[in-house]
Design a protein that fits this description.
The chain is mainly α. It contains 6 helices and no strands. Pfam families: DUF2062.
Length: 180
């Protein structure tokens, strides 16, 4: 079981990351994209993050690196599930609203479409908690990722940087063309 999990992690996370690093993208762009992908990836409504990442890619264009953003979003999925409750409580603190009792009955009402006002209010609180926390999450991740990606890009970049040759080096051939 553990061997299978390690193999899966290598195929789905490590190998794509190494391919991204070998393409020679700028470390700051990779850090920006990874931080944005994780920040969007912890959005407290499950199943929406892929669409939000697509919108971010369409809006930001060449500013972000789409494969890195999507890989970071994929990596953030288990974190997303674990942060729904803290975002809910944080949103309740921000609004000063009452605490929502998380019971199996509330989940049943949501799944059957019989959600009450309290359930919708709790969803609003979770979204508000994420919205307030998102800039801080993004900023902290970006600051953390810039040096990490700088080291990783230099380690895995397969495109060697060619040194500049002096203008009249022996390997350079110059042709002069005369008008006749």
């Amino acid at each position: 079981m553990l061997n299978w999990l390690g193999s899966w992690f290598r195929r789905k996370v490590v190998d794509p990351l190494i391919q991204i690093l070998r393409r020679g993208t700028e470390p700051k762009q990779l850090a920006f994209s990874a931080a944005l992908g994780i920040t969007i990836g912890v959005f407290p409504i499950c199943g929406v993050t892929v669409f939000l990442c697509g919108i971010a890619i369409a809006v930001l264009g060449s500013i972000c690196h789409a494969p890195t953003l999507m890989l970071a979003n994929f990596i953030a999925t288990p974190i997303e599930l674990s942060l729904v409750f803290p975002f809910l409580r944080f949103g309740e603190i921000v609004t000063g609203g009452p605490q929502f009792a998380l019971t199996s009955d509330a989940l049943k009402k949501v799944l059957t479409g019989q959600a009450s006002k309290e359930v919708f209010q709790s969803i609003f609180h979770a979204l508000l908690g994420w919205l307030v926390a998102a800039p801080f999450i993004f900023g902290a991740l970006y600051v953390l990722f810039v040096p990490c990606f700088t080291v990783l890009v230099h380690k895995f970049n397969s495109v060697p940087s060619s040194p500049k040759k002096p203008p009249n080096s022996p390997s350079e051939v110059r042709l002069k063309v005369r008008d006749v």
